[in-house]
Design a protein that fits this description.
Largest sheet: 5 strands, antiparallel
Shape: globular
Strand content: over 45%
Oligomer: single chain
Number of strands: 9
Radius of gyration: 13 Å
Distance between the termini: 10 Å
């Protein structure tokens, strides 16, 4: 039976992209966004090098979660608008 891992994702509190978090080889990946904030957070992924960021769904403006495709190599949070609060995010996956 696979074990569950939870890894924090960097969420910038300004308009900028967080650092990439490697997740290649992990199964059933989900990004969870939580906290109290007024911001737009775009979950992004890459399947190649770090220069090609692909948006995953629409930007989140409230707590929620997104399923991550299995072929993903890395994920990150791109803060596209920020007003206030402390947005947080984590990647949960099976190892």
């Amino acid at each position: 039976m696979p074990s569950q891992s939870i890894q924090p994702l960097q969420v910038p509190q300004s308009v900028s992209a967080g650092t990439w978090l490697p997740c290649q080889g992990l199964g059933n990946k989900t990004v969870h966004v939580f906290g109290t904030f007024v911001a737009s957070l775009q979950v992004q992924y890459t399947v190649g090098d770090d220069t090609e960021a692909i948006n995953l769904g629409a930007a989140l403006t409230a707590p929620g979660y997104l399923q991550v495709p299995m072929v993903v190599k890395k994920v990150r949070i791109n803060t596209t608008a920020y007003t206030s609060g402390t947005p947080k995010a984590a990647l949960s996956a099976e190892e």
